[in-house]
Amino acid sequence: MSLTNEIEKRCTVSGADIRAVLYAMVEVASEALQEGTIIRLGDLGSLRLTLSSEGRDKAEEVNATAIKGSSIIFTPGSMLKTSLLSMKYQKQ
In what order do the strands lie in the sheet with 67-76? Predict the structure, then answer.
């Protein structure tokens, strides 16, 4: 399934416009996450940055070298969470 094609079928926006918006969203989201901003995507959910680091005994010992990794956490909105509850699974 192509997300762009499915969206295009349900609204009056062209596939090219949908792709343009999604590409711009990736750029804006990347910049916002680098600034530490939580990105709220309405009913879809939200994105936020999380860091993992080495523990330090004293606050003055904490610096950028303590950071060992980062990742992006997606928290689904209520509609997506509800859809998980009604899913049925079967072996293919």
Answer: 39-40, 45-53, 67-76
Instruction: List b or e across 14-28, with b for residues whose CB sees 16 or more CB atoms inside 10 angstroms.
Output: eeeebeeeeeeeeee
- Across the chain, mean pLDDT equals 91
Cα 82 to the center of its chain, rounded Å:
18
Quote the pTM value.
0.73
Which amino acid makes up residue 42?
A: G
Query: Can you read off the two tokens belonging to residue 33?
Result: 């996450």
pLDDT band at 4 (very low <50, low <70, confident <90, very high): very high
**What is the model's pLDDT at position 1?**
67
Q: CA–CA separation, 81 vs 62, rounded Å?
A: 37
